[in-house]
Amino acid sequence: MASDQQSGATPQITFDDFLKIDIRVGTIVDVQEFPEARKPAFKLTIDFGAEIGRKRSSAQITKHYNRESLMGRKVASVVNFPPRQIGSFMCEVLTLRFPDEAGEVVLVSPDLPVANGARLF
């Protein structure tokens, strides 16, 4: 019989645990260089709509993305983590991403139109 935990997977959580994580979609409305970051990164401002507003995030996404390709892009982010100081920058949301085969960052984005602030369920 297979174990409850797949190799490399984290321990199982309940559905109620999942509901505690507030993942929303937003549109990147501003992208700034982040030269003081340890690894190449951008400072992002993301619009999550009227309920949540605009929040800031930093992301080490310079391998596959440039400022122009990020502007207007929809991204998924965790919006209910406490703010985190990254150098001189206060990160308010965690922009979700996956590693590609080389370990470089690929953003999580919906493949069809979704309203800013829509919640993952």
Describe the structure.
The chain is mainly beta and 121 residues long. The chain has a single domain (21-107), classed as OB fold (Dihydrolipoamide Acetyltransferase, E2P). The chain is built from two helices and nine strands. The chain starts with 14 loop residues before the first helix and ends in a 14-residue tail after the last strand. Mean pLDDT is 92; it is low at 1-6.
Provide a short characterization of the protein structure:
By secondary structure, the chain is mainly β.
State the share of residues found in helices, binned by percent.
Answer: under 10%
- The order of strands across the largest sheet is 3-2-1-4-7
Number of helices: 2
What order do the SSEs take from the amino end to the carboxyl end, as H and E? HEEEHEEEEEE
Sketch the major β-sheet.
5 strands, antiparallel
* Averaged pLDDT: 92
- Give the DSSP E fraction (strand runs of 2 or more residues): 25-35%
What labels would you give this structure?
121 residues; mainly beta; OB fold (Dihydrolipoamide Acetyltransferase, E2P); five-stranded antiparallel sheet; two-stranded antiparallel sheet; 2 helices; 9 strands; disordered N terminus
